[in-house]
User: What shape does this take?
Amino acid sequence: MIGVETEAVGLGEVKVASGPGRVLVCYGLGSCVGLALYDSVARVGAMVHVVLPDSSMARGRDAPPGKYADTGVEAALAAIVKAGASRSRLTARAAGGARMLSLAGSNPKLDIGARNAEAVRAALARHGISLVAEDMGGTYGRTLQLFVDSGRLLVSTVGRGEREL
Amino acid sequence: MELQSSQWHHLEEIVAQAFADSARSLSQMTTGEIALHQPDLSFLPLNELPGIAGGPASVVVAVYLAVEGDIHGHVVLLFQPENARGLVDLLLGHPVGTCQALDEMATSALAELGNVCSSAFMTAIADRTGLEVKPSPPVVVVDMAGAILQAVAVDLYQSGEEALVVATSFNGALPGHLLLMPDTVSMARLVAALEAIR
Assistant: This one.
């Protein structure tokens, strides 16, 4: 029996894992996007918890690269390649980017979810990584789990069940 | 957020007044007596907020309102689902355990609770500081704490970094949290206004 070792990927974090029983998790994604990169031959996975679409929003303040879609995709790519993945074998899957609070006439900035989703797609395309599956948008939260040994990616919700990506 | 003891004291008075007003209005709305117990105030970094609700993946019931005016930001009332259902029974005058799911009636009762509490809060702030603040109509959401709080935290990420967290319990039995999340400019304005109270 192999123990399961779950590692939470917090806001703006990038994590890489390989080996049996390892699980990377983004808990409670709302407008944030959880992006999973995976090399099925090397069996290495990376996950990044993107909070905002564009690093130009940092306005010179120190922020972890994973916080923004553009720098987050770059940092996750660098980290997974460093851990032994082959760039040409990488696939990407993403979930999140929801609009949680829709008030009539509310601040459009609250629809940051759609902007995050679009920014993640654009950043992946720039780096030539194909987004093979996604579950983005909607008005509900998601938890994203990557089982690193098998590459299985599970999206769970409150009251909307689970699905594999 | 570092407050001087006098500012802290004024803030506690505002919260006490808001809670007394809320309890009075809620008791009038319902058949029974509703009391809000001993508010406990603290400031928390935005990224630690899901922790008060049991972690980012924990299911919570949130009543959300945007606030506009001299203070711009967000107000969120957070409850664990069983406490939210207990509150619905209390508000609708039903026996404990009647509310099993948050249907339309239950949701509108919670929205009204959000209206009453946030209006009382805004009125207390206006009375003591002269700052005029208006809450939007409330939205009730049941989902993961992280997902709900992200939505407001992201709006403030560029500016505000902390929320004022008021923990309380309804009739000593149903705990909940009221979060006031102004942007940085508004927080500074509020703190300055607290300073100016004589």
